[in-house]
């Protein structure tokens, strides 16, 4: 049986890391696409040359021709520009919207059966635009944000508790970034909910609140340190987890930006929600019940995403 084909649209910091991870995990053959001359070819060759030492079997190809992504099983989209210090994700809207148009049309023409994972920011609006431009079924187009946000949350919690990150699970909802909604009562250490751990004296409410805020600001913290771009290792790892769930029909329950129409009180919006990812793409959205406070936070996150979608419609009239 032929290996799956993974097309990475954007061969920058995240794209290159995605290619390396996909090859090392032998998820399939990798095509790196970018408009920057020589970059996709150079990275593909460099990673291929790590194959003998690493011992993986995967073909890597770099290209600037959309025809080379033909028949891809998975497309992961990072094309666009990242943040610089002082910028919010929303500042990227205008420029990255144009990129989504080109990418959406490229996927529509060449890989209409792919499972598409968008990483380009501002995430929730870009995944919506990408779906509109590509015309693919909604369940085959999603965005990577919640896996990363919850990974950051888990990491900070594991440091606070002095336990393995593997034993910390976290539950986040909503848009990527400032309006992210961490559901602390569903976040646990080996099944013990965070509020119980506060009661048990493992941490304090103040410390927990600070960890939640650091998670919300997690992307900005890294932009501030790197200065020349934004995070790429953890974003790439998070998207690979989603791609693997699809390719191996794992039915993983992962938070991601998914099309919500008739769930969680939403009518037609991409936003971060708990989903089940398997060979059907986004196979299910977990329609959880929220408390009043959680619902208020979720509503404000939803409104922020709606504002960005409206801004997209204002920029590109074909989306209105
Ligand atoms: N088609 C294909 N590739 C494009 C296009 C396009 N129309 N426009 C830009 N690119 C490429 C750039 O040439 C660059 O190589 O996208 C790549 C982006 O890579 P980086 O600048 O290194 O950015 P990266 O850190 O990978 O982040 C990409 O993900 O997390 C988000 O906010 C981040 O929107 C940003 C995206």
SSE topology:
Blueprint: E1 5-9, H1 13-24, E2 29-33, H2 39-48, H3 51-54, E3 60-63, E4 74-77, H4 93-110, E5 115-118, H5 123-134, E6 141-143, H6 146-161, E7 168-169, E8 172-173, E9 181-182, E10 188-189, E11 192-193, H7 194-199, H8 205-216, H9 218-226, H10 233-247, E12 252-263, E13 266-278, E14 281-285, H11 292-315
Parallel strand pairs: 1-2, 1-4, 2-3, 4-5, 5-6
Antiparallel strand pairs: 7-10, 8-9, 10-11, 12-13, 13-14
This protein binds adenosine-5-diphosphoribose.
Residues 9-15, 34-36, 39, 78-83, 92, 96, 99, 102-103, 119-121, 229-230, 232, 235 line the site of adenosine-5-diphosphoribose (APR).
Describe the structure.
GO terms for molecular function: L-lactate dehydrogenase (NAD+) activity; L-malate dehydrogenase (NAD+) activity. Belongs to the LDH/MDH superfamily. MDH type 3 family. Catalyzes the reversible oxidation of malate to oxaloacetate. It catalyses: (S)-malate + NAD(+) = oxaloacetate + NADH + H(+). One of its GO terms (biological process) is lactate metabolic process. By secondary structure, the protein is of the alpha/beta class. The protein folds into two domains: about 5-145, NAD(P)-binding Rossmann-like Domain (Rossmann fold, 3-Layer(aba) Sandwich); about 145-315, Lactate dehydrogenase/glycoside hydrolase, family 4, C-terminal (L-2-Hydroxyisocaproate Dehydrogenase, Chain A, domain 2). It is about 45% helix and about 20% strand. The chain has eleven helices and 14 strands. The protein has helices at about 15-25, 40-50, 50-55, 95-110, 125-135, 145-160, 195-200, 205-215, 220-225, 235-245, 290-315, and strands at about 5-10, 30-35, 60-65, 75, 115-120, 140-145, 170, 170-175, 180, 190, 190-195, 250-265, 265-280, 280-285. The strands form four sheets. The chain has a six-stranded parallel beta sheet. A three-stranded antiparallel beta sheet has the order 7-10-11. Strand 12 (about 250-265) and strand 13 (about 265-280) form a beta hairpin.
């Amino acid at each position: 049986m032929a290996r799956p084909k993974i097309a990475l649209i954007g061969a920058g910091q995240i794209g290159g890391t995605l290619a390396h991870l996909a090859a090392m995990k032998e998820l399939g053959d990798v095509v790196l696409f970018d408009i920057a001359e020589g970059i996709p070819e150079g990275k593909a060759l460099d990673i291929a040359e790590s194959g003998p030492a690493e011992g993986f079997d995967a073909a890597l190809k770099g290209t600037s021709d959309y025809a080379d992504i033909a028949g891809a099983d998975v497309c992961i989209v990072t094309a666009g520009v990242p943040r610089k210090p002082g910028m919010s994700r929303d500042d990227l809207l205008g420029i990255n919207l144009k990129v989504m148009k080109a990418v959406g049309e490229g996927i529509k023409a060449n890989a209409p059966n792919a499972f598409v994972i968008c990483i380009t920011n501002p995430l929730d609006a870009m995944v919506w635009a990408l779906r509109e431009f590509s015309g693919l079924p909604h369940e085959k187009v999603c965005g990577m944000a919640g896996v990363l946000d919850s990974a950051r949350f888990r990491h900070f919690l594991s440091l606070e508790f002095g336990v393995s990150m593997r034993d910390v699970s976290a539950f986040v909802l909503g848009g990527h970034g400032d309006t992210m909604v961490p559901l602390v009562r569903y976040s646990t250490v080996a099944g013990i909910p965070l509020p119980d751990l506060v009661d048990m004296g493992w941490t304090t409410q103040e410390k927990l609140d600070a960890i939640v805020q650091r998670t919300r600001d997690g992307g900005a913290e890294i932009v501030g340190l790197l200065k020349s771009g934004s995070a790429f290792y953890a974003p790439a790892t998070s998207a690979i987890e989603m791609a693997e769930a699809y390719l191996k029909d794992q039915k993983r329950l992962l938070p991601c930006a998914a099309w919500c129409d008739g769930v969680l009180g939403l009518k037609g919006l991409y936003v971060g929600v708990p989903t089940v990812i398997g060979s059907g793409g986004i196979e299910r959205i977990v329609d959880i019940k929220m408390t009043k406070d959680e619902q208020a936070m979720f509503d404000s996150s939803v409104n922020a995403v709606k504002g960005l979608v409206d801004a997209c419609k204002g920029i590109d009239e074909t989306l209105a």
